[in-house]
Structures are given as C-alpha cells and as structure tokens.
Amino acid sequence: MKTLRRQVAVTLFLAMIATWVTVFSLIYLEQTRAETGLSDRDLRDAAQKALLSLPTSLLQARPSSEDRFELPYSNRFDGESFNFQVWALADKRLLVQSPWAPDYPLIQDFHNGFEDVTLRGERWRAYSVADADGRIQVQFAKSEAQLRTETAARMRNGLAFLSVLFLILTGLTWLVMRRAFRPVDRARDAILSRPAMDLTPLPTSGMPGELQPFIQSINSLLERLSASLDRERRFLADAAHELRTPLAALSTYAELAVRSDTPQARGEAVDKLRDVATRTTRLAEQLLDQARTEAQSEGRAEPVALDRLSEMIVRDSEALAKRKNQRISLDTHAAMVNGNVDALGVLLRNLLDNALRYTPEGGRVAVSCGPLPDGGAQLSVADNGPGIAPPERERVFDRFYRKAGTIERGSGIGLSLVAQIAAKHHAKIEWGPGVDGRGVGITIAFPASGA
After folding, report:
1. pTM of the entire predicted model
2. What's the DSSP call for residue 336?
3. CB 154 within 8 A of CB 102
4. Which residues contact 403 (CB under 8 A, 6 or more apart)?
5. What's the whole-number mean pLDDT along residues 67-71?
6. Does residue 220 contact residue 201 with C-beta atoms inside 8 Å?
C-alpha cells in the first residue's frame, strides 16, 4: 500500500543517492582530470617550488652523483615512484637529480608543461618549468601507477566521508519524518480507538499546514454524517410516536368489526377502520416526504415550470375535493423557478391538502401561480375555511403543532414540510386573504434565478 510517508522517504533517499553519486563523480573528475586535476596540480606546484628554492650559484657547481647525503638507516625512503632533475639549458648539463632519476632528460625536448613519458618501460606523468631567464629547467615526473594509487586512496577517503555523511543525513531525515508524522499517527490512533458511532470532529491542533485542508474535509464529512444520523434518529422517533395511535386504532376497530353482532355495527366499524387506514397512509407519506426533504441536496436544482406542476397536483387532488363537494379553481401563468421538482410537488400538495382538509363541505379553494415583477415567481393557495388567527400563524409551521380544539384530524407535519422546502429554495412565506372574504391564503414567493 502506498503511503505518503513511504513516498517521501523513498524520494528523499533517491535524492540523497543521486547527490552522493554526483559528488563522488565530481571528486573523481577533479582528481583525474589532465593538467587541471589535483595530481597534476601537485606535480606542477612541486616543480615550481623546487625552482624557486634553487640558488643561482648552482650553475657554477660541478655536482657529482656520488656526493650525496644519506638518510639514517631507520628512515629508509622508497622514492622510485618520483623523479626530478635540474638542467642547465645553455649546455644541457644535468645539475641535480633524484637518486633514481635517469641521466637523460625526462622531457627530451625541454619544453615547459606536462607530458606523458615512458621510463623503464612504465608510463610516467612529467612536468617541466624553466626560470624567467631561461637558464635552468626543473623536470618532475611521477609514476602513473603511483598516481592511480594515490587517486584511489583519495577516492576511498572521499567515499568514506560521503558514506558517513549519507548515513547521518539518512538518520536525520528519518527523525524529521517521524516527528513530522507524529500528529498524523496520533490522529489515526484516536480514530481507531473511537466507538463506532463517535462522529466528533478530528483535532486540528498540531497538524501540519499541508494536512489542515484534508482534516477539515474529514471533519466536514463527519458533520454531514452526524446530521444524517440525527435526521434518521429523529425520523424513527417521529414515526414511532405518530404511528403508535393510528396503529392502535386500527387494531381496535378491526376487533370491533370481527366481534360485531349486526351488519350495521360491522359496517360502522369497517368505515372507521377505513378512515384510520387512510389517515395512517397519509401520515406515513408525510413522514417519508419529510425524510426525503431533509436529505435532499441543494445542489440538485433544475428549472421547474410551476404552472404545469400546479395543474398536475390540482388534478390529483380533485378526487379528495369531490368527497366534500368542494371546488378547486386554478389560475396559472407561465412561471419558472430553480429547484427540486419532487420537493416542490410535496410543498404544493401539502398546501392544497391542508386547505381541503380544513375547508368545510361545499367550500372553495383557489390555486394560482405566476411570475413576479422582480423576475421571481409566486405560488398561492387560498380557501374560505375557518382561517388561522394571526398569533398562531407562525406556530403552524412547527412540526406536530395542531391548534387546540381542532376537530379535523391531522399530523401537524404538512405545513412544517412546506416551511422546510421553502427554506431550501430560499423562498418567503407570506400570509394573505382567503376566498370570498373568509379563510386564509398562503403565498410562496420564489427569488429570481441566480438571486
């Protein structure tokens, strides 16, 4: 499994390996590069220092190869890999030479600079330099085998130094990464030790700045999950509370129907059973509508034609109106709003159902919709029923609120759904007059698209 820690560690490790190889290669090139390398610089510096150390009286001297100082026996010197000569350029006379240097010039043509020569069958690197007046020339030569040996020794020392440095950097990198990811490890342990339903936000203190947006995204997801679970708990509690009474009534009337002695008593029990079943079905539909409304996302908006939606909902409600000899009038004009068509259908259906439920037999309900002058749209439902007193108009949108003394049975969910759906669509609820100077009217004013 790929992890951020492993990727960072591998990347840093490869970067250090590449740096190590690059530095090692540069050191090798610096050691072995002809004429500008470290070995050639040492050879040149030795020749120049020797020239500057010689007295001019050396030209008058008659040195002898036998006239030499000797080292103590305990300090024997093996210098066969290094030779030098001092020549008088005027008469090509050898003035000074190392013990193992040949009697002939190391550089035959006495030119100044570097040259690869062969001495006793081996390759040597030679360098010669003359004084400013061209009187003497110092020639230095070193065995290429010795040069390679010294270069290898320098490379081994450099390799050892770089290896130690690499190990130190690796250790420091591991410590830094361990310290940097310690807050992440603590957050992981805290999450693993939580109970299954613990959705409290993760702590952000001490987290690296690069991980702050990630932690905040997780916390936002946890908040949405917590809100979703709260809605589910609330829905279950509401369903259990509201369905307890009608289910008990269903059981009671079913028992009455079974135990009735006469057809008339049995018919009355069946009628009441049918009414309770209808109310229970309506209550279950409203509870499900409420659950869907709370779970809907605001990002699912689409253009909705209010006039066509109103016509469809009114046609579906005509059967309910005929049972009480009620009449529904419809006045629509083309109007578009951005929203969720299912939620808007629930809104209008609940407004219309509430008006039909509380309007007496023979009453009238008016539904209208159309555009607003500012570019929005409005949807209105008015009736000529008993109306709602102004002090109670705001409370009717509370869930499960029912006016005291109301004869008509209901759940108190319909208008609360209307308020929730209107809020999700950023619409305003306005109270207005009813029909024929009676009842009450409710208008939903939707804002213009993009407002």
Report:
1. 0.45
2. E
3. no
4. 388, 392, 396
5. 64
6. no
**pLDDT tens by residue, 239-266:** 665 566 566 767 777 777 777 778 887 7
Gap between the Cα atoms of 321 and 328, Å rounded: 7
Please name which of 128, 104, 129 lies closest in space to residue 116, comparing C-alpha atoms. Answer: 128
- Whether the CB-CB separation of 428 and 445 falls below 8 Å is answered with yes
- Domain 4-64+78-165 annotated CATH 3.30.450: yes
Give yes or no for a contact between 422 and 443, defined as CB atoms under 8 angstroms apart.
no
Of the options 1.20.1440, 1.10.287, 2.60.40, 1.10.10, the CATH number for the domain spanning 209-295:
1.10.287
Residue 144's contacts (CB-CB under 8 Å, 6 or more residues apart) are: 116, 122, 123, 124, 125
The answer to whether domain 300-446 has CATH 3.90.190.20 is no
| HSE-up (13 A, CA, CB side) for residue 273 | 15
d(CA 166, CA 160): 10
Hey, which residues does 119 pair with through a beta bridge?
A: 122
pLDDT band at 129 (very low <50, low <70, confident <90, very high): very high
Strand ranges, E, within 144-242: none
Six-digit token string for 223:
């908040």
Q: Which two tokens stand for residue 363?
A: 């009453």
Q: What is the pLDDT of residues 313-347, one digit of tens each?
A: 888 888 888 888 999 999 999 999 988 888 888 88
Task: Assign 405 a pLDDT band (cuts: 50, 70, 90).
Answer: very low
Three-state DSSP at 334 gives coil
Query: In a 3-state reduction of DSSP, which class is residue 213?
Result: helix
Structure tokens at 17: 């390996």
Q: Whole-angstrom Cα distance, residue 316 to residue 298?
A: 27
Question: CATH 3.30.565.10 residue ranges in the chain?
Answer: 300-446
Contact present, 443 and 430 (Cβ < 8 Å): yes
Location of each CATH 3.30.450 domain in the chain: 4-64+78-165
